[in-house]
Design a protein that fits this description.
single chain, about 170 residues, alpha/beta, Rossmann fold, two-stranded antiparallel sheet, 5 strands, about 45% helix, GTP-binding, hydrolase
Length: about 170
């Protein structure tokens, strides 16, 4: 059991590929900050979430971004989320503020509502796409290098073979 961290597994399909994702919800609670830092280390995608009805939660985003930049792997994919979009009457943070902050940090931005399911699937799909895109580049690079190494190994193997049949009747040229 992980105190302060809610853990879930979910399978989603992106571009015809089924991807199983692990979701670690730290709920942004300051008292668990030392625990949550260890979860950044292996993260490949992170939602930075604030409550649109709380200016205070929005102000904490800058601290969370700083923590992510310090503790998460380089190239981790990030999306800024303004949650509780169903509580428009309580709004303290404008949509434009969220969009501007996301732009400053080079992130995508969504306003979501867990209650009405607004943009939940879309935001998870987008984060998964970003993670896959980042890893496709790595995998393509690995495939290219592996292919070149394989071709080189085959060439070296061919060069070590004699040019013609060997004089012994027991030995095959191939």
């Amino acid at each position: 059991m992980n105190p302060g961290v809610d853990f879930k597994m979910k399978t989603i399909e992106v571009d015809g590929i089924k991807v199983r994702i692990q979701i670690w919800d730290t709920a942004g609670q300051e008292r668990y900050q030392t625990i949550t830092k260890q979860y950044y280390r292996r993260a490949q995608g992170i939602f930075l979430v604030y409550d649109i009805s709380s200016e205070r939660s929005y102000q904490h985003i800058m601290k969370w971004v700083s923590d992510v930049d310090e503790y998460a792997p380089e190239g981790v994919q990030k999306i800024l989320i303004g949650n509780k979009a169903d509580e428009e009457q309580k709004r303290q943070v404008g949509r434009e503020q969220g969009q501007q902050l996301a732009k400053e940090y080079g992130m995508d931005f969504y306003e979501t509502s867990a209650c009405t399911n607004l943009n939940i699937k879309e935001s998870f799909t987008r984060l998964t796409e970003l993670v896959l895109q980042a890893h496709r580049k790595e995998l393509d690079g690995l495939r290219t290098r592996a292919s070149k190494e394989l071709a080189l190994a085959e060439l070296e193997e061919d060069e070590s073979k004699p040019e013609g049949p060997v004089n012994s009747s027991k030995t095959c040229w191939c």
